Amino acid sequence: MRIVSYIHPIRTYLPCTGAGRFMNNSLLGLAHHDQVKLELLFASQWLQADGYLPANCPLRTLAKRSFPMPENATERTWKLFSRPKMDSYIPSNTDWLFAPMETYIPVTKCPVAITIFDIQAFEPDLPWSRSWRHRLFRLKWGQWVRRAFKDYQLIFTISHFSKQRMVELLGADPNKIEVVGVGVEPAYFDAAAINPAQLSRPVDLPYTLVIGGLRQKKGAEYVLAVAEALQKQNSQLQIVVAGSSEANYVEAAKAYPNLTLLGLVKDEDLPRILRGASSLFFPSHYEGFGIPAVEAMATGVPAVVSSRGSLPEIVGDAGIVVEPTKIAEVTDILINLESDTALRATYTQRGLAHAQQYTWPRIVTRLTTALEQYA
Q1: What digits encode the pLDDT tens for the residues 121-145?
Q2: Are residues 166 and 243 in the same domain?
Q3: 22/141 same-domain check
């Protein structure tokens, strides 16, 4: 099976977001598959003087082809006018054009498969759905996404929740949508075998870890409310936050000495910091998947997640799903997971077993199986 994969190289440079990790791991997996011949396709502006992508791109050594037009301007014309057609940049014997990201690329020579992680842009009832930024976001996506559902043979997504919302909000054909999930890097599974007492910790006292920073989308208001509740109970449990935070929440956090902001954390440090926590607290308002929850379970740490978006689906009965507005109940759960070793062990074992379905080899198998079936 010959696959040409269109990418935005900059999204794959390390360190990268969850979408970048999906692109890197899925494409590296396909490139090493015995039955797949993979080539990358991207704008030539990303090539370095040596003719390759930068050294911090894991896809640097893969076979590639490029086009001379600038990426941003070309994508705008693709999405607005379905021009220019890109068939001349694709070999005649190509079985699939595959984009492991959200895009619209006009091609008639071969079937096209793209990846849409979620359709947050079209969600009507999020706390920020009526903001001008979200309306602009929805307008931009509206210029191309419905066409993609109509024109393309296959849409990959990462949760059944996202698939359901595509059908409900955009009228997408469910028979064209395949759920493949997201994988967890081996470092998280390796960390589960380490005694937490042997690890360097960000704080001396027991802590619950929040990943994603203090941001509105990630439920920052709930994190601050739990920090206040912990103080009122004189609990020793701390809250440690990994990730960049919005300025207003950074200022608000100064009122809570039991709350530590780490800022951006290196990819290689996150498994260690997770392993040292008594729990993950992930009260996000909306997730198409929610990889921190699975990463926590892979490290042997119980995941406490909000009842929003895909999170109940992703953790199943291996995690603890909470209504994030019920601050007293959430606080008690976090305290109990720290103090009750038997309770923590129960969710640790459930989580470790559950996380096994989210390894990158399994994700790549789901991708290749679907591409073979839909060809």
Answers
A1: 999 999 999 999 999 999 999 999 9
A2: no
A3: yes
Characterize the bridge pairing of strands 238-242 and 154-157: unpaired
Q: Are residues 179 and 190 in the same domain?
A: no
Domain that holds residue 231: 186-355
Is 198 found in the same domain as 123? no
Nearest of 120, 17, 23 to residue 367 by alpha carbon: 23
Tell me the mean pLDDT in the region 36-61: 96
135 in the same domain as 37: yes
Q: How many domains does the chain have?
A: 2
Instruction: Return d(Cα 129, Cα 289) in angstroms, integer.
Output: 19
pLDDT in tens, 241-258: 999 999 999 999 999 999
Q: What is the mean pLDDT of residues 290-312?
A: 97
Cis peptide before 15 (omega within 30 of 0): yes
Q: Are residues 225 and 334 in the same domain?
A: yes
Q: What is the DSSP letter of 109?
A: S
Secondary structure class of 113 (helix, strand, coil): strand
Strand ranges, E, within the chain: 2-6, 37-43, 64-67, 96-99, 112-115, 154-157, 177-179, 207-211, 238-242, 259-263, 279-282, 303-306, 320-322
CATH number, domain with residue 255 = 3.40.50.2000
Same domain, 369 and 293: no
State the Cα–Cα distance between residues 114 and 125, nearest whole angstrom. 26
User: Six-digit token pair at 52?
Assistant: 């390759």
**Residue 271, SS3?**
helix
